[in-house]
């Protein structure tokens, strides 16, 4: 398991938090997701063999938000 803190731009309300949280939780190998709206971060615990970080970031962008590297 790995933990990554991903900086996300464009989240403005609880709806955004839910959208990101639900989308990431649906990915194979994602164990937990914690989104901090104020900080603009998503902390993800995941198995990188099942869902590499690039896939997780792509999923966030698919939801309409920007990942800041
Ligand atoms: Cu929102």
Topology:
Layout: E1 2-9, H1 14-25, E2 30-36, E3 41-46, H2 53-62, E4 66-68
Antiparallel strand pairs: 1-3, 1-4, 2-3
The structure holds copper (II) ion (CU).
Copper (II) ion is lined by residues 12-13, 15-16.
Could you characterize the architecture of this molecule?
- This protein is of the alpha+beta class and 69 residues long.
- The protein has a single domain, classed as 2-Layer Sandwich (Alpha-Beta Plaits), CATH 3.30.70.100.
- It has 2 helices and 4 strands, in the order E-H-E-E-H-E.
- Strands 2-3-1-4 form a 4-stranded antiparallel β-sheet.
- Strand 2 and strand 3 (41-46) form a beta hairpin.
- The chain is globular and about 30 Å long.
- The two termini are 21 Å apart.
- The mean pLDDT is 98.
- Copper (II) ion (CU) binds at residues 12-13, 15-16.
In summary, what is this structure?
This protein is α+β, with helices and mostly antiparallel strands and 69 residues long. It is 32% helix and 35% strand.
What is the CATH C-level name? Alpha Beta
Strand order of the largest sheet: 2-3-1-4
Q: Per CATH, what is the topology?
A: Alpha-Beta Plaits
Secondary structure tally: strands: 4
Task: Give the cofactors and ligands.
Answer: copper (II) ion
Which residues form runs of ≥5 with pLDDT under 50?
A: none
Distance between the termini: 21 Å
- Structural class computed from helices and strand pairing: alpha+beta
Structural Rg: 11 Å
Query: What is the beta-strand fraction?
Result: 25-35%
Integer count of domains = 1
Give, in order, the helices and strands: EHEEHE
> What profile does the largest beta sheet have?
4 strands, antiparallel
DSSP summary: helix tally: 2
